[in-house]
Amino acid sequence: MNKVILKSPHGTSEIKIERGLMGKVNDMIHKAYPNARLVVITDTNLAKIYSNYFKTNSDELVLTVPSGEESKNLNSITTLAGKMVEAGIHRSDVVVGIGGGMITDLAGFLASIYMRGISYVAVPTSLLGMVDAAIGGKTGVNLIAKNILGTFNLADYVLIDPNLLKTMPEREIKSGMGEVIKYAYALEPKILDDLDPLNVDAIIEKSVNTKIRIVASDLKESNKRKLFNYGHTFGHAIEAKSGYALSHGAAISIGMNISNHIAQKLDKQSTQLSQQIKDTLEKHGLPTELPANQSIKDLIDLIAQDKKSSGKKIDFVIVTKIGKSEIIKLSAEELIDIAKDFK
Ligand SMILES: NC(=O)c1ccc[n+]([C@@H]2O[C@H](COP(=O)([O-])OP(=O)(O)OC[C@H]3O[C@@H](n4cnc5c(N)ncnc54)[C@H](O)[C@@H]3O)[C@@H](O)[C@H]2O)c1
Question: CA–CA distance from 282 to each of 174, 181, 250, 278 (Å)?
């Protein structure tokens, strides 16, 4: 088993990566919290595929929400919390989020606010969850725009079993690859060595290590953690405008290309690097152009409402060299002006 510890001034998270781990998850959690009742939160898709792993004691709960981003909202939180109250779940119990990023964001948020906070374990099942969403304590739900309500809540344990990826639909694997390629170009070029041929175990391990390296010193995203938002400023807006028809990774892939376009226009990225990133994304089946029904102007209107705009300036991440990125501040007007000719 590969074990890494994320230690931050705000808490600690133990991350375990092992093929076959899913079969041991139930016992491991009961052992770690001997007197707690488990509340498993998952989605309807995963409940169908993995229900034999969710066996809990008769006084424990398995709660499901419909799969898909539409479930990441306050209604789900109210419904789930209501069921937990009815079942007498207390602060000494533990929430276990088993799912992709939608579920770990939702379950992590619920755990952080239920009775002012109860223990939380994340079991990411999607590639995106394993390399990114379940690591580093960001939780939340959508309200008007993405992740408007949320908390920083480190999971006590993050249990990763790469075998679960065998049941992942191809669309979702591609979505996870969007975040992996983001890490590679913005922060950790060594990941590029494992893209072709794809070495899934290596990319999970390197991505997790990249994430914890930065998050350990900046959990609350006041500084370096913002670099993970490469592609996300436009990506979140594109995802929301598509009504979540585009996967998260597909949307940030387009967002990375918009960022590259901006970086090039500011003379901060070479055309060769821009082309290389585009080629890598396309090779992994990700889109790089805006959907026909979306415009840069509409996206920027949405971005201006998003949490990443501080005052009038928006923090915007650009990649300057392979594995090197920086934050620049641009107003909505400047963004429109620089990005308007992106296709
Ligand atoms: N908290 C963070 O730091 C962070 C970072 C990145 C993304 N996110 C969030 O993550 C979410 C996207 O995550 P996602 O792409 O995992 O989406 P998701 O959780 O909606 O999962 C995508 C689909 O794949 C299915 N699925 C997941 N694992 C499976 C498996 N092993 N086998 C078969 N099907 C499986 C799910 O049921 C779902 O239908 C977004 O809400 C995004 O905002 C959070």
Answer: 10, 11, 10, 6
Residues with CB under 6 A from ligand 1: 43, 45-46, 49, 67-69, 72, 99-103, 105, 125-126, 128-129, 132-133, 136, 138, 146-147, 164, 167-168, 172, 175, 248
Tens digits of residue pLDDT in 290-330:
999 999 988 988 887 764 555 578 899 999 999 999 999 99
Is the CB of residue 101 less than 8 Å from the CB of residue 252?
no
- Record the tokens describing residue 259, joined without a space: 């960022």
Q: What is the pLDDT of residues 28-84, one digit of tens each?
A: 999 999 999 999 999 999 999 998 888 778 889 999 999 999 999 999 999 999 999
* Biggest distance spanned by C-alpha atoms of the chain: 62
- pTM (predicted TM-score): 0.93
Find the 172 Cα to ligand 1 centroid distance in Å: 8
Residue nearest to atom 13 of ligand 1 (CA): 101
List the structure tokens of 39: 């509340």
Provide the terminal-to-terminal Cα distance of the chain, rounded to the nearest Å: 45
For ligand 1, the distance from its centroid to the CA atom of residue 129, given in whole angstroms, is 6
Distances 85 to 82, 193, 279, 280 between C-alpha atoms, Å: 5, 49, 50, 48
Whether the Cβ atoms of residue 275 and residue 200 lie closer than 8 Å to each other? no
Residue-wise pLDDT tens digits, 114-124 = 999 999 999 99
Query: Hey, what amino acid is at 40?
Result: V
35 Cβ neighbours under 8 A, 6+ residues apart: 92
Ligand 1: distance of its center to the CA of 102 in Å?
5
In a 13 Å sphere around the CA of 115, the CA atoms on its Cβ side amount to 14
Q: Is 316 helix (H, G, I), strand (E, B) or coil?
A: strand
With 60 as the cut, is the pLDDT of residue 5 above it?
yes
